[in-house]
Amino acid sequence: MKNVLITLTLVLILKQMCNGQVNTPNGVPVPANALFVYSAVKYTDAQLQSEQNNIQNGAYGGSCIILSGYSRNYNCHGYAWHVSTGGAQTCIDQVFFGGVTPYVAGVNPSYSQTNYNSTIGKLRVRYSGDHSAVTTYDGKFISKFGPGPLVKHNALDVPPGYGNPSSCWTCNYAPPLTSVYLDGKLISGSFQNTTWGSHNMQIFWGLDPDTGPTFSPTAGSTIINNQSSGTVNFTFNGPSNNGGLSIAFCGAPRYSFTFFKPSGAKMQVYPNPAQEDEVITISSESPDELHAVNLDEQTNKLIKVSLLDDRQRVIQDYLPNAEGNLTTVKMKAGLKGTYFLKATFEDGTVQTKRLWIAK
Known about the structure:
Layout: H1 2-18, E1 35-36, H2 45-56, E2 65-68, H3 76-81, E3 91-92, H4 101-104, E4 111-114, E5 124-127, E6 132-135, E7 141-144, E8 150-153, E9 165-171, E10 177-182, E11 185-187, E12 191-193, E13 197-205, E14 214-218, E15 221-226, E16 231-236, E17 242-249, E18 252-260, E19 291-293, E20 302-308, E21 314-318, E22 321-323, E23 326-328, E24 337-345, E25 350-357
Parallel strand pairs: 12-18
Antiparallel strand pairs: 1-3, 2-8, 4-9, 5-6, 5-9, 6-7, 7-8, 10-11, 10-13, 13-16, 14-17, 15-16, 17-18, 19-23, 20-21, 20-24, 22-23, 24-25
């Protein structure tokens, strides 16, 4: 009698633990009375192990491969609709309490009905009996045989009471993004300023998406490589000042990021016109210096300065002598008249300023 009471107490404790809130991927609550646990009295370890051995020995068909051992913590519906999307193990009752219904009908369903395709993985399948399964990309099914093991099998290699596959369902939800990194730095928001060129973005999401994510470039970006792990390499290359990435889960665009090129380094030149005689010498010590100033706070570094004549011919190139955002170049003596100072920045931006040197 004492052992029976202990067992019943454990069952009640497990039921309370199991009856924690369970939501569909789109956040709709599953009825609390649809959540349950298998009784250890009704399904003993010895019985479950014996059934597992029978399954392994081909009791329901030679295709059955055991993926994980028996467990009272979750059942076929719990696996197909909840566990396989990243949720905790739980048992969901469909027949009496409609535990699967919030996933496929009602307010904001997470799945929509579709046709079966043997090349499509992670479709949810409802059987004519009380059973659910998930398809694989090689034409097989994965399902939990009640409190028994998790099994990979042919569509019809299931216990007789499960019936036949009757409907297929594809995901209609987007997992929440948990964090996004651009070039190794955590970002927030869909609009980002960055330089043109090659970049890496890492995207981490909550629930496991069934058929994604996939990445697509919008105007101004080119996808170099993308993986289902959530890493995408892309080139932000114009032709306008923005581009972006669109992220699709289950085939539908769900998130997008737009990248803007910084407004460009703006060059300031002074003194202009120069207040010197016909021989001009520019140095860091001179009070009459010529400076090219990068106003983008080193986001866009100056890499070259060229002096052009009034016919845009290069007279001299200078390597920047940069200190912070300030670059000093030393002009050669003997220059008179109108010239142009052309500054080239690391992202390809070019700025040109007219320079007058007093005659």
